[in-house]
């Protein structure tokens, strides 16, 4: 009987039920959309690399020793001993630049990152094992020096079978003839944004002087083999110079910015869930007030307090189920939109959507618990009301939380937000502290409405006239419910300030790093290797050069104490660049580091460690770190701890004197500064004097701007989530005002009958909305400052970066200007409904309630 009654009641109050379901659903969707950003970026990258590895279940790749290739035969000899391996497939990946593109070619922003056209050398005599699908022509055979290019690239460049592609590479000039095109629905052709071609392995080895070398060896296992067991066994049997990975492991490239955003979004997910919970709580509280006569009648007919309570809990259960179903569906759409946006920014194909079951379950559980928590207070208030009291209409379902409780909750949240926690507890503590903070705001808000009325009344009466007094009176009469709406607005505005402060802080930190690190008039790279004496040539030929600094980037194996070895970036630079007496560059030292160590840096076998390395592995100035070099494992003294954003922050800065220890070769980049000349004029002269190098020159301001623009665009998806927060806040205000109007139908009917005009009634409702939104905005700005501190602190703890929130003036202006806009939009529909209702209809509605 209770279930039947509950279902009928939910359908009878369709719009109220829909608003509550939407509140729960949006909260769940926000959680799914935010916490799966990193999962989806990695999942799509992994799917690309998995498809590009074809039938291979495992791959043997080079260890992190500064080299991109391995000697194939020794690996193959070792693999022959493994009876679980059925076949091997060798692959050589090589990046080159089309000669036609070389004059305008721009290398990736970060030195050391490969760019250009990807040539994949494959064992083309085994087409059935290759991760390619022919669209036209044939695969190139050994000795043909042919190449099959992706269909998309051929269409873009208007290429046809038989055309010749000329390449510029570190090994010189070479060419291939197009023999076929590849379908772009997966496999190798999905790599490198389609700029890819497949050629014979032996032909590519010959063209690049890499005979006998490969990038990795794919392993096809015998049927029913356990890939993980084979991988662990190979790791034991193979030297440390090799890595044994799953094909998807090549796609695990989430950098420090992704980690920072992901950790911040996980905190936001908890606060968005709390915001949606406020909307659900508000609706339940309002429904009890709206139905006080109904509860009185039920009690008179013999319903017990427990039965009345069970009705509310049944409603919560049904709404939870509906909210979970709608929320998961909406969460899929939000996750897909964010992933597609990031795929566009990071230039990878969007092929899969990852929704980890544990996160779906967590979001659904949180949504369900939030709904029951929102229902429990109003339900208990309704079940405990005597029939005669309810009949007189004196119920205020929002009461029951004294001011002291609100102050205690708010104070606890603020105190927890400024404490420091162990790395594993950071996110949990941050989310909990923010939830307490905004719940506390909602509980304290009703008491603040009394002084707020005195402050707002003179201004609003001047703007709205006498109807403003009616609206202010209504604010106080429904103060408990309006307190919840104020909390919702505070959370929406708080997210705007909090996320904006975090993003501005990250951008400012990167900008400070760029300003101190990217110093020099121009930064030059080349499509072919720089000559060994290039630095000497420059200094001899151009006396106006004030700085010539080489920069190289290598990947090396780093062995943290009592942990497995891992990859780290080694940024090799000339010590003169950071010499205080003569250099233009400056390292950003973290407090407590040894700054006067440049003489030790000149000697070599010494590094500056990034703050991320220091935090994650307890590295301190004066200690030593173990790095794998061409001479084996060597100890390097740590001269200091610096801020660095290269390669997810896991970086060591070393001297170019040690370049030979990390694979040798020539630097990837030279930094030049010139006096008495315009840098652009000098750059054009360099290109004329070194035509065979196909120099790529980026000038200071454009180089800095390119880096900062890239990081700013990356946070576009984060900022877009703020729209969701503001929408939920507006729904909370509109829902509150709508319920307030439902409660006051009789009052409005009497006012209209006494001559109150429609426009005056609208102004009174607008007054109520403006008070709620403005007070919520002011509290939200304060809460947002606390939120930004918590988000950046938790992100710093997880990533090892040193980021402080920054609050630009325009951020506060946006938050403050958004307040009246949200208030007007949220109040418009309820105000219009109140103004248009006929007095007789209002009286009839109040009697039915």
UniProtKB/TrEMBL annotation:
Pfam families listed in its UniProt record = FtsX, MacB_PCD
Task: Output the InterPro entries linked to this UniProt entry.
Answer: ABC3_permease_C (IPR003838), MacB_PCD (IPR025857), Membrane_comp_ABC_pdt (IPR038766)
- Give the source's domain of life in one word: Bacteria
List, for all copies, the residue spans of the domain called MacB-like periplasmic core. Answer: 17-235, 485-656
* ABC3 transporter permease C-terminal domain sequence ranges: 268-383, 720-839
Keywords on this record? Cell membrane, Membrane, Transmembrane, Transmembrane helix
Q: What is this protein called?
A: ABC transporter permease
